[in-house]
Specification:
The protein is α/β, with parallel strands linked by helices. It is built from 13 helices and 7 strands. A 7-stranded mixed β-sheet has the order 3-2-1-4-5-7-6, with helices on both faces.
Length: 316
């Protein structure tokens, strides 16, 4: 195992827990579906070289460039692909592998994206309402805020942001855009009468849920996850493991339900007298309850507070 570089990058969430549960060893073929700036990828590579290989996937070209620089001391041991992880099967096939030993998903938005002052991911910067992880994608947060109906906005804020006042937020946007388009993050916060600073007693900034909801909708994050997980399960070798770190209750629910489905013996309707589906379990769920960050990591990295890790092992 090679020693990892000590570079001043943001520490990835649940790093040790995810890597240890993937049960990596020299020679493994691993896939990191959300490379970001390469934090998890670096730890995975340290566990699988010299004979293993890493396939890294990310939509964000800037993130991939940062990761490539970080992983340069593993040159020849990894391949990075700019793609949506819903295309995991195509990416793995393009790397000339049929099956892999380990797959990691670290969902949500990266620190690199949040700290970018020009892409609209964060309410801490006045920037155009963009929020695209893939800059070539058509749909932006501007389109959603200015063109979606009040009912569509209500659903997005309620479902993806878990906002208590989703309808009133949508109504405020509908009224404001009648006079002029809402173009920037600060304009949106002004329309919604959201303060720029978090008060001391507030656990999270009141704009967090709104921006999270818009980002998820812009990038179809839930749809991509629902499409990618079954493909990931099918790509695993027997004994291979999949680990998913989620930051949103809906993400975690999708992961839990997908793992449960693949772990079931039968999926026939309850009123069927005998099983006719002939389904065999493909997974063994290793985390009946999700693994969460410890108090030290939560204090050191606020993003870890909402993180949940679920792990399963391929048995077929």
């Amino acid at each position: 195992m090679r020693e990892m570089l000590t570079v001043d990058y943001h520490r990835p969430v649940l790093l040790n827990e995810a890597v240890s549960h993937l049960r990596l060893k020299d020679g493994c073929i691993a896939v990191d579906c959300n490379v970001g700036t390469g934090g998890h990828s670096e730890a995975v590579l340290a566990s699988i070289v010299p004979h293993g290989r890493l396939i890294g996937i990310d939509l964000d070209a800037e993130a991939l460039a940062s990761a490539r620089a970080r992983l340069t001391h593993y040159e020849g041991k990894f391949m990075l692909a700019r793609a949506n992880f819903r295309r995991i099967d195509e990416v793995v096939s393009g790397a000339l592998f049929d099956q892999v030993d380990a797959i990691l998903f670290d969902l949500g938005v990266s620190s690199l994206q949040l700290e970018s002052g020009v892409r609209g991911f964060s309410f801490k910067h006045d920037a155009p309402l963009d929020m695209r992880m893939d800059k070539d994608a058509r749909l932006t947060a501007y389109d959603i805020v200015n063109k979606f109906s009040k009912d569509e906005l209500t659903r997005i804020f309620r479902e993806y942001g878990e906002c208590d006042h989703a309808r009133s937020l949508a109504q405020s946007i509908e009224r404001a855009r009648l006079s002029q388009p809402i173009r920037t993050t600060y304009e949106l916060m002004d329309v919604l009468r959201i303060r720029r600073e978090r008060r001391a007693h507030e656990r999270i900034h009141p704009a967090t849920q709104v921006f999270q909801a818009l980002r998820i909708a812009v990038n179809d994050e839930m749809g991509a996850l629902e499409e990618a997980l079954p493909k990931a399960v099918n790509l695993l070798k027997p004994g291979g493991r999949i680990a998913v770190i989620s930051f949103h209750s809906l993400e975690d629910r999708i992961v839990k339900k997908t793992f449960e489905y693949f772990a079931k013996q039968c999926v026939c309707p309850p009123d069927f007298p005998i099983c006719v589906c002939d389904k065999k379990p493909a997974l063994s769920v290793l985390t009946k309850k999700p693994i969460v960050a410890g108090p030290d990591e939560m204090a050191d990295n606020p993003r870890a507070r909402s993180a949940k890790l679920r792990v399963a092992e391929k048995i077929l």
